[in-house]
Design brief:
- The structure is a single chain.
- The protein is mostly beta strands.
- 8% of the residues lie in helices and 32% in strands.
- It has a 26-stranded mixed sheet that branches. The protein has a two-stranded antiparallel ribbon with strand order 11-12.
- A hairpin with an 8-residue loop joins β31 and β32.
- α1 packs antiparallel against α2.
- The longest helix is centred in the first third of the chain and has 11 residues.
- It starts with 18 loop residues before the first helix and ends in a 40-residue tail after the last strand.
């Protein structure tokens, strides 16, 4: 699931910020210290002589703070335009304006006012950027002081890290955050009514809040974006993105975002501040946290955990008081129109939905909670008497809300407590669904059950604050109120728009499979073009189909170096007729399809996941002979996966430098998936540089069709390496087959068929194969390691072969003893030329005379493997076939698949001992 550019790394600038420049800037920046800023004539040092190449212009107007030439030059170099940076430090005790036209660097803890003394208002103009350079840089608005940070949709105020400003790598916790302290009540205040002064978490001593004025006013925040904050002061003592300590309801908070904070997005310690249009994205602990008597209101709230399945905990973690859950004033906020989208993070904490605990009450309307299958619980109420009583006496209300989690844990509760699912469904307007029809951005799609199902809280609850709505979730069908100001939605950036990051749209981020790499899950049916971008892992979840059968066609593109894996035998990929795969790796960055065990470093084996299936519209002799529509069910795949037709030039896309490992799960006895199955695939499809390694069934199998393949490696496969049937007439060149080196399961290198019941059925199988090396092993089980077996009426044109193996190997070349197949050999519809057979088993040939083989052009027989191969390189001097200008076949100067000095297998294959 992709969120239009939200990411943990901001885009690199064209003029990349040099580390030396940054170091110089920090060294040149003043160390700070207490300063008193004057509204009429703020403290500004006289600018020194300008540095060169490049340097910011000396400020022509007076800005708050201290002008810093070194830091200004560094930011100017990074941004490519003149930028003035003013350093703000100490305590602001007079009204001060951060004017547009400059950036402002916080230096250490910056306080607005003393506690209820020397009060001041800090005004921040639209478009201003304020940044911190370390975790000790944060902004605190003291009791009785105010912040007036009112941006606009096209000029939001941005509070972020130095790294974000200069285009360096961004992450949570790069600076402190913002803290507002007010005089509203908290149930931590003394119960005797004496003065209340509660120390706020994460801030130096003396930053206190609390009082008796529910309607206290700490100013205004509007169109404000806070990014990459939340420095950990000490274990379990981090700064939130925005902390509200005892902030009163006369404070105005509207259109704010906290992105990628190391602790909570927003936390409310008591108070009654109200919030509208709140965006919380990619925060690493709770997105919303309230405690100790918070009684505010919220509406239009969007929460999304990190799209890369990175650190996350609860969307809402709500408390009253841990030691005295029914303590007054009791936390009891009212929230309407909230969308919560979890992720698959599973670490010390999990991605979860809403947890109401420690006696909090709450009234929640028009809420939707959704998330992927590895997400934790979506709604939980703590199993303590006070919290459980709220469920029965109306202290907790959740109405017109929808649970849409796919984790089988929409609700978590103790058996002794209230059955939360039954309670939820008994509330007015609630529902459970698996399909909320939300876009990756959280907006409802056409037909979404969220639309027109909401409660009008403006009429029914409180029209003085709540807007009139008729929908569930943060958004209606037409308006995205985040657009153009919030980070990841067209705004909230210092320099350039954020790149799209995380998992591509159409996939879902899950926990990193290897503990590190962004991992995206693919499931269901892909009906629009999808690109699997590089530097990620992709997990197949169940049968994944590209397109419907000759309908809703799509192309699945896969970047070089991508790894796709399955976690069970039911995970496989099918390219439907009419759709395409465009998998183009390289010799240094092949595309890998493998098992979960391979990703996690566990023991690998054949059959650990499904495999890959390409279905096309080319001919098969299983198609109806009357020319009517052909739809042949392919083996090993769920019903409806069909192939066949009349277009032998059909195009199913490209496989280039693709390795398939550890696949071939047995669906049923004698019904296993091949490594790569080609069902009716046409010759416009490109297949070259492919490998199937350690598959439980065949390496590659061709059911009819005309697809060609070049540079093919088939190693350690447990059934046939190459299998064809039912009219296959493609071409292959440079094919290396090597049975398992440990003499484990193997069968034929080639098993070639036409039709078992009608061996001469048309179109008749007749592939052309050149430059193939077959190396058998000593496996002797239900089947044996063998070379080439042609049967059931197939024809074949074979040349430039090397077939060899040890003494325990079975027959090396066999033609079935049936009339049609034997007649094909007699008529030379089976031809075998310019080749050598060198088996040590005394059974080079079966059901065909050695004289037949030697009578054909340029064939020879050798005694042992070392006569013909050095490793897998051909060392037998033989005359290769001249293909006379054939557009597919090369005129190779050797027989076999690989010659020394031109090893096309190096760098991208496995299992060959490179």
């Amino acid at each position: 699931m992709e969120l239009n550019g939200l990411e943990m790394k901001s885009v690199e600038l064209k003029n990349v910020f040099k580390i030396s420049a940054l170091a110089a800037a920090i060294a040149l920046t003043g160390c700070g210290g207490d300063i008193v800023l004057n509204a009429q004539a703020p403290n500004v040092d006289v600018a020194p002589t300008q540095p060169t190449n490049p340097a910011p212009t000396t400020p022509t107007e007076q800005y708050a703070g201290t002008y810093d030439a070194g830091l200004s030059q560094a930011v100017t170099s990074a941004l490519g335009n003149d930028t003035t940076v003013q350093v703000i430090s100490g305590r602001i005790t007079q009204d001060t304006v951060l004017k547009s036209g400059a950036m402002y660097a916080l230096s250490g803890p910056v306080f607005v006012g003393n506690d209820k003394a020397d009060s001041a208002t800090l005004t921040i103009e639209p478009g201003v950027v304020v940044f911190g350079r370390s975790g000790n840089d944060y902004l605190v608005v003291s009791r009785d002081s105010k912040i007036n940070a009112v941006g606009s949709k096209d000029k939001p105020i941005i509070m972020t890290s130095l790294q974000d400003v200069v285009g360096d790598e961004t992450s949570a916790g790069q600076w402190g955050g913002m803290v507002l302290l007010g005089n509203a009540p908290s149930n931590k205040c003394p119960s005797d009514g004496s003065d209340c002064a509660l120390q706020v978490e994460g801030v130096e001593e003396g930053a206190v809040f609390g009082g008796t004025n529910w309607e206290d006013n700490s100013g205004a925040l509007k169109y404000v974006v806070v990014k990459y904050a939340g420095y950990e002061i000490a274990p379990d003592n981090e700064l939130n993105g925005i902390t509200f300590g005892g902030v009163g309801s006369a404070t105005s908070v509207d259109y704010i975002q906290v992105h990628a904070n190391a602790d909570d997005g927003v936390e409310f310690f008591g108070g009654a501040v109200n919030v509208k249009h709140l965006v919380l994205t990619g925060n690493q602990d709770d997105s919303i946290d309230w405690d100790n008597g918070y009684r505010g209101k919220m509406q239009h709230v969007f929460v999304q955990h990190d799209q890369n399945a990175g650190d996350a905990n609860r969307a809402i973690e709500a408390d009253n008081d841990g030691s005295n859950p029914d303590k007054e004033p009791m936390s009891n906020p009212t929230i309407s129109n909230i969308t919560i989208m979890g992720n698959n993070f599973d670490g010390k904490d999990d991605s979860e939905g809403v947890y109401l605990r420690e006696g909090t009450a709450a009234k929640i309307y028009n809420m939707v909670i959704t998330g992927p299958n590895e997400m934790g619980e979506c709604l939980e109420v703590e199993d303590n008497p006070v919290s459980q009583a709220h469920l029965q006496n109306g202290g907790i209300i959740i109405e017109n809300s929808m649970m849409a989690c796919s984790n089988d844990e929409n609700f978590k509760y103790k058996d002794a407590g209230v059955n939360l699912e039954e309670w939820f469904m008994a509330q007015s307007g609630n529902s459970i669904t698996t399909s909320p029809l939300l876009s990756s951005k959280g907006t409802p799609l056409t037909g979404s059950p969220l639309l027109e199902k909401g409660q009008d809280v403006g009429t029914n609850v409180d029209g003085s604050f709540f807007d009139t709505t008729d929908y569930i979730g943060a958004f209606n069908a037409t308006e995205d109120w985040r657009k153009d100001w919030a980070f990841g939605f067209g705004g909230g950036v210092v320099t350039a728009q954020a790149e799209a990051a995380g998992c591509p749209a159409g996939t879902v981020a899950i926990s990193p499979a290897d503990g590190v790499t962004t991992t995206c899950e693919i499931s269901g049916r892909i009906t629009s073009d999808l690109r699997l971008t590089a530097n990620k892992l992709y997990a197949l979840s169940g049968p994944v189909f590209v397109g419907n059968d000759n309908a809703d066609s799509a192309t699945l593109s896969i970047d070089a170096g991508v790894t796709v894996f399955g976690r069970s035998g039911n995970d496989y990929l099918v390219i439907s007729r009419g759709s395409k795969i465009n998998a183009q790796g390289s010799s240094t960055a092949p595309i890998i399809f493998t098992s979960n065990q391979d990703i996690t470093g566990e023991v690998t084996a054949a059959g650990q996941w499904g495999g890959m299936v390409l279905l096309g519209n080319a001919s098969s002799n299983k198609c109806p002979q009357d020319g009517s529509d052909c739809a042949l069910q392919v083996e090993g795949v769920e019903e409806g996966a069909v192939f066949g037709g009349t277009n032998d030039q059909d195009n199913s896309g490209t496989l280039r430098y693709v390795v398939v490992k550890h696949a071939g799960y047995e669906i049923a006895p004698d019904n296993e998936l091949n490594g790569i199955t080609f069902g009716g695939v046409g010759n416009k499809t490109t297949v070259e540089y492919i490998q199937v390694h350690q598959n439980a069934d065949d390496g590659v199998e061709f059911f009819g069709g005309t697809v060609n393949a070049k540079y093919v490696v088939l190693t350690g496969n447990q059934d046939d390496s190459v299998d064809w049937d039912n009219g296959y007439r493609g071409k292959m060149q440079y094919v290396l087959v090597k049975h398992a080196a440990d003499d484990s399961d193997a069968n034929r290198a080639i098993e070639g068929d036409n039709d078992g019941s009608t061996p001469n059925k048309q179109p008749q199988s007749n592939p052309q194969i050149a430059n193939m090396t077959i190396i058998g092993n000593n496996f002797d089980g239900k089947d044996d390691s063998e070379g080439v077996y042609l049967r059931e009426g197939t024809m074949a044109q074979l040349s430039n072969f090397v077939i060899t193996g040890p003494a325990g190997m079975g027959e090396c070349f066999e033609i079935e003893d049936t009339p049609v197949t034997q007649q094909n050999a007699t008529n030379l519809d089976i031809s075998f030329t310019h080749s050598v057979v060198a088996c040590q088993n005394g059974e080079n040939f079966k059901n065909i005379d050695e004289t037949w083989f030697l009578s054909q052009s340029k064939n020879e027989v050798a005694s042992k493997q070392t006569d013909v191969l050095k490793g897998y390189f051909t060392q037998f001097a033989a005359t290769p076939k001249d293909f006379g200008g054939d557009k597919f076949f090369d005129n190779a100067d050797f027989i076999g698949a690989v010659k020394e000095g031109n090893d096309w297998t190096v760098g991208w294959t496995v299992g060959l001992g490179h």
